[in-house]
Amino acid sequence: MRAMMLQGFRINMIDLENTTKAIQGKLGGSFETITLRDGGHMLCDQFALAKDKPYNNLASLIAGTGVYGDAVIVGSDGKGFCDVPDAFMTLLNFPVDYFAEGGTA
Fold it and tell me: How far apart are CA 92 and CA 98, in angstroms?
């Protein structure tokens, strides 16, 4: 499935196998799901804070709650995860440093 990877202030599109094992491998362990607007779901490491992973400003801004470590945004087809919804593609149009502290706003 196509997913949007949020690492620090970087946003990248990735191909991610739609299996628990593949998602855990990408995020570093057991993951939790945060439901977003527009049919999106953010997946992030459930124990990232305990693992001392850094605060993810961009993922936290999108999710509306504190997120630590890397995160991915995917969609849902009602039966499971699927490709990231088109509504999130606008995030790819921002300059690389737009969301960074002191970035061009």
Answer: 11
